[in-house]
Design a protein that fits this description.
The chain folds into two domains: about 10-70 and about 130-145, Chitinase A, domain 3, CATH 3.10.50; about 80-125, Beta Barrel (Thrombin, subunit H). It is elongated. The chain is built from two helices and nine strands. By secondary structure, it is mainly beta. The strands form two sheets. Strands 1, 2, 3, 4 and 9 form a five-stranded antiparallel beta sheet that branches.
C-alpha cells in the first residue's frame, strides 16, 4: 500500500478546529476535497508534516503550534492606509478582512483594526497567527497519485 511522502499528490478532506472544538475551516462542509502536492509549499509546514506516512483511508488528528502553522503574532505588523486608497463608497468596519498586495504583487489579507476620518489601520498578521491549539483533523480519504 502506498503512503504519502514528499512529491505525492493527494486528494483529501479535512476539518480545522480551534481548541474549544469550534470549526474554522472544513472541506467536508463545502463538499470540496483539497488536492495538493506535498513538498512544494502548497500547505503550511505542520499540516504537510502530519500528512506524511498516511495511507489511503487513514484518519489523523493533530495539533499545531503557531510556529508549525501561521506563525506567532507580530505586534509590529500593521500599516496605516489613507482612506483615499479605497473606493469612495467603501464601508469600513473594524474587524473586516481586506485584500492587499505585498512585494512582488503577492496578494494577502489584512484586518482593519482602527478607522478614523483620514486613515485606516490594518493588522498584517495572518488571521490564523498565534493560535495555540490550531488543529486540523484530516479525514484522509486520500487518493494517492503517482509521484511528481
Amino acid at each position: 500500500m502506498s503512503t504519502v511522502e514528499k512529491g505525492t499528490t493527494i486528494t483529501l478532506h479535512y476539518t480545522g478546529t480551534f481548541e474549544d472544538g469550534t470549526v474554522f475551516d472544513s472541506s467536508r462542509e463545502r463538499d470540496e476535497p483539497m488536492t495538493v502536492a506535498l513538498g512544494v509549499g502548497q500547505l503550511i509546514a505542520g499540516f504537510e508534516t502530519n500528512l506524511e506516512g498516511l495511507a489511503e483511508g487513514d484518519t489523523k488528528t493533530f495539533t499545531l503550534t503557531p510556529e508549525e502553522a501561521y506563525g506567532p503574532r507580530d505586534s509590529n505588523a500593521s500599516t496605516i492606509l489613507h482612506r483615499t486608497v479605497f473606493p469612495s463608497d467603501f464601508e469600513f468596519v473594524t474587524g473586516m478582512t481586506i485584500p492587499l498586495t505585498g512585494p512582488g504583487n503577492q496578494p494577502f489579507l489584512a484586518t482593519i483594526t482602527e478607522v478614523n476620518e483620514t486613515n485606516v489601520v490594518a493588522d498584517l498578521n495572518h488571521p490564523g497567527s498565534n493560535l495555540r491549539a490550531w488543529r486540523k483533523s484530516n479525514g484522509c480519504d486520500a487518493k494517492l497519485s503517482q509521484n511528481i
